[in-house]
């Protein structure tokens, strides 16, 4: 019926255009009732969507402020608000989130016309894989915490066992929910779904904040115990002793090793849940959905993997040397020199590569992708926000080093490291963000053209190979002239000939594969080749720069220079808010660079 109502005025206007063709350009569609009605409905939908987002955002803000007040009160007044009180509050929030996730899985998502659209950009495989990986590590972390608290049950409260038990259930349910429903654009129960998503985001943020503050207290206690061991040769003064020292050490080492993964898990879940919150009630047209999904193929790269692998091997050796020396009672001065020297060599290479990639993006004819995409917008915000952790710590270090003694060898290395780290973060962000905003159509058509021409050229570069193979087969398989005699010599000669043919075919297949790879590399444009080389090199470099601080390399605290300048407590707060953001930045940069490599 609606189509007929719209078509009648248009047909009437067309009939009038024969006599007055100039009137067709003056048609005002605002006069039609259906147009006004649809416009008003769209406006009401936008207003309802904005109101729902505002209400759910206010809910999350109040929950975050309440939890932050609890955690801050625990830090400043441990008598009135204890860690057990914070655990009880977070356990209540986890249970509420569990109820909502189960309701979404069993009720909301199964309603008719609930999920009509799915965002192809949301929930990338590396994001969901990170959720599973870090979620598994967080589960193992809670298992170690439960085991350690169970052994010391005589001096620990039962909340220390209940809280990680609820945490395991929450992590498993949330990981399953994000793996299967991260792409959903839910079309029913908008406000309730938005509130549930925001409540889950607020809970993960509070868990991240608690993990950061607990890590601060843990590092402070560990440093104080190290000083005590130097003075009193390790005399036990604590009343809560472990009956089995070996098992307790295993739980403690496992807990300390897996602790950073818990903070990463909370941040990743927040990013995925935020994209789902933006996609609530979203309608996606067909031209927004990509017809072909680019796949990761190790083609078109030679120098990037070589340089990146060298950086990883050297970085692993430096990291092992650092861990052996820095964890001793008196850290060696030389190990800090080696650590900073490695960064001073690697960071400029990464910065130069990012600058070259940005220049190539400027030279390309790709258009900027201006379509609304909450996933890409969030990627930009996360890259810029997470980089503030390392940039902030670097500026604090620069001020402290310039104000003390910048001429000292270690201080000058630390100063150079801080300046280069700021420059590398900025250049890499510009390169990744500029690449994410380029359209993929040109890259896909070029790749198809390269593959198409590659097949023809490889076939042309190997003329007569099939003919020679067939002739060789016929030559060795033809019986000798004369009478056929089945002798052992002839059988051995025939078997030897068949083996010779198979080896020849294998060599030809290897030759074809190598020529195909060389041809694919050579037929890519020089811009595509350079972008792939740079992206692959930066991917491997960011991986090693993620591994080193994640598994305990923290020279910004262990060298003692900034700590003595700002004071023990102040520098601990700066480091423990900056380090998790820096680790998250490296991991998120790997995802963005992978997308640039695939689409290049």
From TrEMBL:
It holds the Pfam family Otopetrin. This is Otopetrin 3. Keywords: Cell membrane, Hydrogen ion transport, Ion channel, Ion transport, Membrane, Transmembrane, Transmembrane helix, Transport. InterPro entries: Otopetrin. Its main location: membrane. It comes from Cyanistes caeruleus (Eurasian blue tit). The chain crosses the membrane at residues 54-75, 87-106, 126-149, 161-179, 191-211, 256-277, 298-324, 336-360, 380-403, 415-433, 534-553, 565-585. Residues 482-497 have a biased composition (Basic and acidic residues). One of its GO terms (cellular component) is plasma membrane.
């Amino acid at each position: 019926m609606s189509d007929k109502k719209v078509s009648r005025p248009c047909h009437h206007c067309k009939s009038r255009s024969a006599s007055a063709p100039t009137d067709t350009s003056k048609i005002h569609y605002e006069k039609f009732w259906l147009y006004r009605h649809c416009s008003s409905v769209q406006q009401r939908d936008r207003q309802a969507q904005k109101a729902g987002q505002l209400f759910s955002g206010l809910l999350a803000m109040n929950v975050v402020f309440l939890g932050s007040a609890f955690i801050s009160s625990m830090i400043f007044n441990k008598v009135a608000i204890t860690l057990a009180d914070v655990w009880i509050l977070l356990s209540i929030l986890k249970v509420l989130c569990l109820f909502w996730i189960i309701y979404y899985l069993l009720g909301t998502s199964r309603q008719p016309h609930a999920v009509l659209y799915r965002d192809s950009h949301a929930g990338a495989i590396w994001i969901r894989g990170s959720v599973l990986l870090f979620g598994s590590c967080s589960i193992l972390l809670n298992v170690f915490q439960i085991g350690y608290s169970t052994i010391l049950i005589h001096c620990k409260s039962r909340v220390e066992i209940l809280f990680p038990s609820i945490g395991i259930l929450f992590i498993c349910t949330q990981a399953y929910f994000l793996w299967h429903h991260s792409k959903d654009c839910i079309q029913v129960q908008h406000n309730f779904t938005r509130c549930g998503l925001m409540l889950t985001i607020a809970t993960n943020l509070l868990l991240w904040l608690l993990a950061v503050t607990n890590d601060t207290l843990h590092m402070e206690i560990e440093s104080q115990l190290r000083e005590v061991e130097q003075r009193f040769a390790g005399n036990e003064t604590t009343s809560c002793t472990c009956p089995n020292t070996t098992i307790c050490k295993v739980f403690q080492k496992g807990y300390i090793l897996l602790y950073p993964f818990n903070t990463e898990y909370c941040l990743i879940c927040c990013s995925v849940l935020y994209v789902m919150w933006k996609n609530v009630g979203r309608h996606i047209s067909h031209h927004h959905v990509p017809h072909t999904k680019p796949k990761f193929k190790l083609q078109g790269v030679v120098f990037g993997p070589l340089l990146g692998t060298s950086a990883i091997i050297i970085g692993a050796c430096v990291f092992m040397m650092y861990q052996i020396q820095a964890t001793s009672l008196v850290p060696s001065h030389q190990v800090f020199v080696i650590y900073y020297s490695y960064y001073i060599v690697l960071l400029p290479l990464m910065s130069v590569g990012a600058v070259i990639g940005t220049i190539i993006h400027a030279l390309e004819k790709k258009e900027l992708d201006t379509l609304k995409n909450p996933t890409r917008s969030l990627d930009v915000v996360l890259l810029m926000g997470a980089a503030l952790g390392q940039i902030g710590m670097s500026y604090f270090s620069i001020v402290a080093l310039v104000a003390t003694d910048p001429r000292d060898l270690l201080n000058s290395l630390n100063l150079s490291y801080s300046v280069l780290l700021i420059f590398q973060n900025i250049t890499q962000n510009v390169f990744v963000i500029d690449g994410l905003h380029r359209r993929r159509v040109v890259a896909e058509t070029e790749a198809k053209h390269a593959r198409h021409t590659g097949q023809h050229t490889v076939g042309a570069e190997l003329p007569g190979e099939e003919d020679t193979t067939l002739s060789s087969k016929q030559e060795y398989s033809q019986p000798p002239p004369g009478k056929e005699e089945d002798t052992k010599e002839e059988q051995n000669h025939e078997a030897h000939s068949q083996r010779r043919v198979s080896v020849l075919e294998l060599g030809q297949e290897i030759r074809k594969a190598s020529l195909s790879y060389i041809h694919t590399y050579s037929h890519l444009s020089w811009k595509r080749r350079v972008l792939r080389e740079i992206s692959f090199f930066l991917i491997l470099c960011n991986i090693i720069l993620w591994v080193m601080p994640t598994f305990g390399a923290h020279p910004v605290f262990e060298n003692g220079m900034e700590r003595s300048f700002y004071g023990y407590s102040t520098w601990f707060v700066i480091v423990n808010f900056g380090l998790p953001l820096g680790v998250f930045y490296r991991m998120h940069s790997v995802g963005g660079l992978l997308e640039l490599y695939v689409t290049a």
